[in-house]
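Pilot study result, target chain (128 residues):
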Amino acid sequence: MLLAVAALAACSGAAAEAELTDVTWTLTELEGSAPLADTNVDLVISADGSLAGSGGCNRYMGGVTFGDGEITFGPNLASTRMACEEAVMAQESAYLDLLERVSGYEIGGGELRLTDSNGNVLARFQAS
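Predicted structure:
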C-alpha cells in the first residue's frame, strides 16, 4: 500500500513538472492586481532548468530549480535594459522582485500560481 501511494505521488509530481515546463505562461495577476493593459508579461520554464520571458518591457532570463511543488528563481536573473513608460517599468521591477520571493507553485485548470513560503499566491498565469 505504501509503495502504491509513493508511486502515485511520484507520478503526480512528474506530471505537474511536465505541465510546468515548455509552456508560455502569461501573467494574469500580480499580487492581487491585474497587470497593466497593453503589457505582456510572460514566463517560460524549460526542463533543463532555465527560464526566459518578458517583464512587459524587457526580456529576462536565468535559472530555475523546481520539483514537488517547490520552485526558486535565480539567484542571478538577467534582463535587457530598454526603457519604457514609468508605469510599465515599475510593474516590471515589482514582477522581477516578486520572482525572488517565490518558493512554491500550483498548477490547475491551465493556471499557474506562484506562492511564497507561507502559501500566499503572489502571481497567477494562464497557459497560452
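One observation from the pilot: The longest strand covers residues 59-67. A full batch analysis is planned for the follow-on phase.
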